[in-house]
Request: fold
Amino acid sequence: MPAMTAEKKALNYLKAFEAEGRVVKRVVIEGKRIELELETAPENLSEFDKVDMRYDKAGAS
Reply:
């Protein structure tokens, strides 16, 4: 059986993750090392999570 290259292994991993419904943002191949970066689910933020609620003297003049 011929040896699989890192590129072919990465493609197999990519297909497997996408078949499971995961979104792959980035694939890095360095020698034999394969790194897959997956998309994380966005956080559900309320309108108050986006507001800077700090009170300090830095903003006052």
In short: The helical segments are 6-19.
